[in-house]
Amino acid sequence: MIVRLRNFVGDTVLSLPALRLLAQHGYRLELVGKGWARELLQAEGWAVHVRPQGLRERVAQLRELRRRCRAEDPGFDKRSNALLFPYAFSAALDARLAGLRAEGHVGDGRSWLLKRGHPRREGRHVLLEYWELASDFLGIQAEAPGEVGMRVGEAQREQARALLAAHGIAPGRFVLICPFANGSVEFLDRSWPAFPDFVRRLRAAGHPVVIVPGPAEAAGARQLYPQATALEGVALGVYSALLQLAGVVVANDTGPAHMAAGVGARLISVLGPTDPARWAPWGSTVTVLRRWPEWPGAAEVQSAVDQALP
Predict the structure, then answer these.
(1) What angle do CA 24, 25, 26 make, to 5 degrees?
(2) Which residues 6+ apart lie within 8 Å of 38 measured at CB?
(3) What DSSP assignment string belongs to 269-305?
(4) β 188-189/184-185 pair status
(5) Quick check: 16 and 33 in contact, CB under 8 A?
(6) In this structure, what are the phi and psi dihedrals at residue 94, rounded to the nearest 5 degrees?
(7) Comparing C-alpha atoms, which of 24, 8, 36, 89 is closest to residue 215?
(8) If pLDDT is split at 50, 70 and 90, which confidence band does 186 have?
(9) Are 273 and 186 spatial neighbours (Cβ–Cβ below 8 Å)?
(10) pLDDT of residue 188
(11) What separation in angstroms does the CA of 255 have from each of 20, 236, 258, 290?
(12) Which residues contact 90 (CB under 8 A, 6 or more apart)?
């Protein structure tokens, strides 16, 4: 079956249990998503196709995938054969124009484009939304797992260890910070304002600090966090391994926070306006600190780090 992924790292991580559920029920997955999804999901073993920008190119890609699937599976066009995790009208339109029999959540005026639409249950954690969509597609009821269980490849882990060794940093002994958070919640910034002070406190206490900025974050990382070891140009799969190797991860509401929880890292999730009932990182290794409408102080988060470090 063809599965259209969401356009955000955190959502893609949170959809992993749903994707595994589909695979466990006999579907070979052909995933379509952003360019970073291929590296992020490399260790999962699924085919990931990078989605083009233009409508004509997107539809042509889906038609070609449909043609390949029909060649291998004569029954492909006789059943629902695509699942859409995005809620957007464009995702359903692309699938319809490509001749796919797609299912997805109803809404955004797209129900008529779908083979079958499913209710989006409001007020649920986002992981459960994706899990329930996959369950509805399969026609089953199943309890969502307590862990995301995101896989990290051994080659990715070796690259991460080599990066740390090149900077004289021992696995399991450093704090990895994820201080950048794009976007806002109801026009309120999701970035913890005490992050720079917190990092200064960590360095004063002798803790090695690592930051892995994206291309648009590198200059900000150097300016705001000169005390941290910046590892730039790191692919998402290697980033996942670095998160797994950290003593503790401290993060805003951001994609790498969900990656950290996904790989089972010790994570301190510092949330402001974000609703943890919907967006808290998922897993037993997560500690959420939230005092909204105030933010946790640097001293409180440092205390949590001291307790979490081995």
Answers:
(1) 90
(2) 48, 50
(3) EEESSS-HHHHSPPSTTEEEEEBTTB---HHHHHHHH
(4) antiparallel
(5) no
(6) -55, -50
(7) 36
(8) low
(9) yes
(10) 72
(11) 20, 10, 5, 18
(12) 55
Helix 236-245 vs helix 255-262: angle between axes, to the nearest 10 degrees? 60
Q: Is the peptide bond before 293 cis (omega within 30 degrees of 0)?
A: yes
Residue whose tokens read 């997805």: 104
Quick check: pTM over 0.90? yes
DSSP letters for 31-93: EEE-HHHHHHTGGGT-EEEEPPSSHHHHHHHHHHHHHHHHHH-TTGGGS--EEE----HHHHH
Whole-angstrom distance, CA of residue 28 vs CA of residue 88: 24
What amino acid is encoded at 246 in this protein? A
Place of tokens 């919640």: 185
Instruction: Give the Cα separation of 119 and 200 in Å (integer).
Output: 47
pLDDT digit string (tens) for 242-295? 999 999 999 999 999 999 999 999 999 999 999 999 999 999 999 999 999 999
Quickly list H helices, 167-235: 195-204, 218-224
Q: To 10 degrees, what angle do helices 298-308 and 195-204 make? A: 50
The answer to whether residues 82 and 91 touch, using CB atoms and an 8 Å cutoff, is: no
- Complete domains list, the chain, with CATH: 2-138 (3.40.50.2000), 154-308 (3.40.50.2000)
Distance between CA atoms of 190 and 113, rounded to whole angstroms? 35
Residue recorded with tokens 């499913």: 118
The pair phi, psi for residue 107, each rounded to 5°, is: 120, 170
φ/ψ (deg, to 5) at 251:
-145, 150
Contact predicate 82/95, CB 8 Å: yes
Alpha-carbon distance of 133 to 118, in angstroms, equals: 7
